[in-house]
Write a structure and sequence with these properties.
Structural class of chain A: mainly alpha
Largest interface: A-B, 42 and 42 residues
Largest sheet of chain A: 3 strands, antiparallel
Order of helices and strands of chain A: HEEEEEHHHHHHHHH
Oligomer: heterodimer
Radius of gyration of chain A: 46 Å
Number of helices of chain B: 10
Number of strands of chain B: 11
Helix content of chain A: 55-70%
Low-confidence stretches of chain B: 1-50, 340-352
Structural class of chain B: alpha+beta
Largest sheet of chain B: 11 strands, mixed
Chain lengths: 296, 356
C-alpha cells in the first residue's frame, strides 16, 4: 500500500534518502524525475503517488506521469507523452493531460517546460556561432618547453648578439655617413686600401677644393648634423630637420664619405676641411676634442 | 667536533682533521685538546717535509662531516686547477689546445635544409613566393592587430604596445567576428598582415600571423610576454620612426620563410634617425622578440636600451593559404615525436629546426 506520509516521514526527515543532497542552506533531490530539484514534501517523486514531470531528451520534451494505480508495476509506472515542438501547443497538451491534477504539479510542469525550451533555443543559437575549441596541454610538455626556453634564452645572449649585429652594420656602412666618429674604422679601412686608393683620393681632394666653395653655403646643415650625432644623447632634437637636411645633403654625404676616409689618413686640416671651411673656427675646436671623444 | 673527528676510524681522517684544527687554532685560539697536543708533534714533522701529504688511499668522500668534506673538496679542486695551469704554462706552445665545452649548438647534427646564400633554387623560390611583392617594393606593409573574443586587460595592452612597435599597425576589437569573414574585408581595405593574438586565462598565449593576399599563415605559441611597465631600466616610449629589423639564425628553408614573414611586417626603409631596432632572434626554435633603442658611443661600442614589449614565440604550424583551420594545407606542423636522447649526440628530429 502507498502511504506517502510514512514514506516522507522516513526519507524526508528521520532516515536516509540516497537522492538527497544537503548543503548549508538547502536540500536538493537528485532524482531524475523530480520536478523542481529541491527535496520537499510536495516535490519528492518517491513520497507522492500522483506525480508528473517534464523532461527533455535530444531536443524533444516529454511529459512523464505517475499514478497510484500503477504503483505496483514499476516497469510501467511512468507514462511518457511526447510534447509538441511548438511551445504554446505543448502548454495546452500539458493542461490537457494534467486536467484535474493538483495545481502545484501543473504549474511546476509548465515552468519546467519554459525553462527547457529557453535553454534549447540558446544551444541552437550558440552552435551556429564560433565555438571555442579547448586544446589540452600536457603538463609535462609545458614544463619541458618552459625549461628549454629559459636555457635557449641564456644561450642566445641577446644583448651581445644585437650589439654585434649593429656594429657590423656600422662597419659595413649601412648607416651611411650619419655617424661621424668612426675614424678608427676608416683608419683600418684606409690602411688596407692605402695603396689602391691614394691617387684617387688625391684627385678627390682637388675636386673637393673646387667643390667645397659650393658647399660652404650649406654648412649649417652639416653643423646640425655634426652636433646631432656627436652630442649623441640628444634624442629629442629636431629629427625632422635633420632628416630633411639629410635628404638634401645625400649627394654631399657621398662625397663626404671619401673626405672622411681621407680624414683618417692625412692630417685633418686644410683642404679636407673644405666643407667645414665656413665653420673653421668651430671645427678646430672639434678636431681636438674629436680625438678626445674616443676616450669619452 | 673534536670528539667526532676522533671517533671516525682512520688515522688518515684524524690527521686531516687535526691539520685543519691546527690551522684553526692559530686563527681562533681554540682550547687545546690532548689530541691536538699530540698531533702537534706530528704536524711539525709533516710541515718540515712539504705540507700535509695524505696516504694514497685517502679520498675526500671518507670524511663524515659535511662542511669539512665540502671545504676539503674545494681545496682539492683549487689545487688541481692551479697544477693544471702551471703545467699548461710550462708546456707553452706544445700545450694541447683548450677544450671547448659541448653545447647544444655544437652538437647539433647538420640540418640538410640549411639555406646556402647562393642557392639558386631558394633564390628562385623567393623571387616568386608571396613575399616577392613586398621585397620588390611593390607593397607597403599595413598590419591589423586583433585578439580572440573578449580580451582581458593584459592582452589589450599588449596589442596596443605592439601597434606602437610595428609601424602602420591598427588595433581592432574583435567583437566575436569570424576570421573567415574578417579576412576578405581586410584584403579589400588594403591590409597586408593580419595578426590575431589568442588569449587564455587573461594572458596572451598564441599568435596567428596571416599574410593577407592569400599568403601563408603561421601559428605561434607566445610565452613570457613582458609589457613596458614590467621592464627594468627601460627607455622612453618608442617614437614613430620606422625601426630597423634584425633577424638572427633563420638559416633553414623553414626558418628562411618565417624570417621573410617577419621582415615583411616592417616598412622597407628604416629611419636611422630613430635609432630603434626590432630583433627576432631564433635560438633552438624559440624566437625571441626584443625592441631596443641603440646609440653608438664610438665605432667599437654601442649601447642599447630596451623599450617596448618583449615576448618569445615558438612556431606551431605553417599553413599555405590564409587562415583556415579545417581545410587548410599545412606546410609544417610541429609534431611531438618521442625521441631518444643519445648521450653525446643530440638528434633534433622533433624540432624540424628553424636553424642549424
Amino acid at each position: 500500500m502507498q502511504h506517502d506520509d510514512v514514506i516522507w516521514d522516513l526519507i524526508g526527515n528521520k532516515s536516509f534518502c540516497s537522492y538527497k543532497v544537503k548543503t548549508k542552506t538547502q536540500q536538493f533531490c537528485r532524482n531524475e524525475y523530480n520536478i523542481t530539484g529541491l527535496c520537499n514534501r510536495s516535490s519528492c517523486p518517491l513520497a507522492n503517488s500522483q506525480y508528473a514531470t517534464v523532461r527533455e531528451e535530444k531536443g524533444l520534451c516529454y511529459l512523464y506521469m505517475k499514478v497510484i494505480e500503477r504503483a505496483a508495476f514499476p516497469a510501467r509506472m511512468w507514462e511518457k507523452v511526447k510534447l509538441d515542438r511548438n511551445y504554446a501547443k505543448a502548454l495546452e497538451q500539458i493542461d490537457e493531460n494534467l486536467i484535474y491534477w493538483p495545481r502545484f504539479i501543473r504549474h511546476k510542469c509548465k515552468q519546467r517546460l519554459t525553462k527547457i525550451t529557453q535553454y534549447l533555443i540558446r544551444i541552437r543559437k550558440l552552435t551556429l556561432k564560433r565555438q571555442r575549441k579547448l586544446v589540452p596541454l600536457s603538463r609535462k610538455v609545458e614544463r619541458r618547453e618552459k625549461r628549454r626556453e629559459e636555457k635557449a634564452l641564456i644561450a642566445a645572449q641577446l644583448e651581445n648578439a644585437i650589439e654585434k649585429e649593429l656594429l657590423d652594420r656600422l662597419k659595413q656602412g649601412t648607416y651611411g655617413d650619419i655617424y661621424n666618429f668612426p675614424i678608427h674604422a676608416f683608419d683600418k679601412a684606409m690602411e688596407k686600401q692605402e695603396e689602391d686608393t691614394e691617387s684617387e683620393e688625391e684627385e678627390e681632394e682637388d675636386e673637393e677644393e673646387s667643390g667645397t666653395r659650393e658647399f660652404v653655403a650649406e654648412d649649417e646643415f652639416e653643423e646640425s648634423d655634426l652636433s646631432d650625432f656627436e652630442g649623441s644623447s640628444d634624442e629629442e632634437e629636431d629629427d625632422e630637420e635633420v632628416s630633411s637636411e639629410e635628404e638634401e645633403t645625400e649627394e654631399e654625404l657621398e662625397e663626404e664619405k671619401t673626405k672622411a676616409k681621407s680624414k683618417g689618413k692625412a692630417p685633418l686640416k686644410g683642404p679636407i676641411r673644405k666643407k667645414r671651411a665656413y665653420v673653421e673656427i668651430e671645427y678646430e675646436q672639434e678636431t681636438e676634442p674629436a680625438q678626445k671623444s674616443k676616450a669619452t | 667536533m673534536d670528539s667526532n673527528e676522533a671517533t671516525t676510524s682512520e688515522s688518515v681522517s684524524k690527521k686531516k682533521g687535526k691539520t685543519k684544527k691546527v690551522k684553526r687554532k692559530v686563527k681562533h685560539d681554540e682550547a687545546p685538546v690532548q689530541e691536538m697536543e699530540q698531533a702537534e708533534g706530528e704536524e711539525t714533522e709533516k710541515k718540515s717535509e712539504s705540507g700535509p701529504c695524505f696516504p694514497p688511499t685517502f679520498s675526500v668522500s671518507e670524511i663524515k662531516n659535511k662542511q669539512r668534506r665540502h671545504s676539503m673538496f674545494l681545496k682539492l679542486k683549487e689545487e688541481k686547477r692551479k697544477k693544471k695551469k702551471k703545467e699548461r704554462k710550462a708546456l707553452g706552445d706544445k700545450a694541447p689546445p683548450k677544450e671547448v665545452p659541448k653545447t647544444i649548438e655544437n652538437q647539433r647534427i647538420y640540418d640538410e635544409t640549411t639555406v646556402n646564400p647562393e642557392d639558386e633554387e631558394v633564390a628562385f623560390d623567393e623571387g616568386t613566393d608571396e613575399f616577392s611583392a613586398y621585397f620588390n617594393r611593390l607593397t607597403n606593409p599595413k598590419v591589423l592587430i586583433t585578439t580572440s573574443d573578449r580580451p582581458r586587460g593584459r592582452t589589450v595592452r599588449f596589442c596596443e604596445q605592439l601597434a606602437t612597435v610595428i609601424p602602420h599597425a591598427h588595433v581592432y576589437y574583435r567583437r566575436g567576428l569570424a576570421l573567415k569573414r574578417v579576412i576578405p574585408q581586410c584584403v579589400s581595405r588594403g591590409f597586408t598582415y593580419l595578426m590575431v593574438i589568442n588569449e587564455d586565462r587573461k594572458v596572451p598565449n598564441g599568435l596567428v600571423l596571416c599574410h593577407l593576399p592569400d599568403g601563408p599563415t603561421a601559428h605561434f605559441k607566445v610565452s613570457n610576454v613582458r609589457l613596458r611597465k614590467e621592464m627594468k631600466r627601460r627607455g622612453k616610449d618608442p617614437t614613430e620612426h620606422v625601426p630597423e629589423v634584425i633577424l638572427n639564425n633563420f638559416t633553414t628553408r623553414l626558418g628562411h620563410s618565417i624570417g621573410r614573414m617577419f621582415a615583411a611586417l616592417f616598412p622597407h626603409d628604416p629611419q636611422f634617425v630613430g635609432r630603434q631596432v626590432a630583433t627576432f632572434h631564433n635560438q633552438r626554435d624559440f624566437i625571441f622578440f626584443r625592441f631596443h633603442r641603440y646609440i653608438f658611443k664610438n665605432e667599437k661600442k654601442v649601447g642599447i636600451q630596451e623599450l617596448g614589449p618583449r615576448f618569445t614565440l615558438k612556431l606551431r604550424s605553417l599553413q599555405k593559404g590564409t587562415f583556415d583551420s579545417k581545410f587548410g594545407e599545412y606546410e609544417w606542423v610541429h609534431k611531438q615525436i618521442h625521441y631518444n636522447w643519445s648521450f653525446y649526440v643530440f638528434y633534433f628530429i622533433y624540432f624540424f629546426s628553424l636553424n642549424i
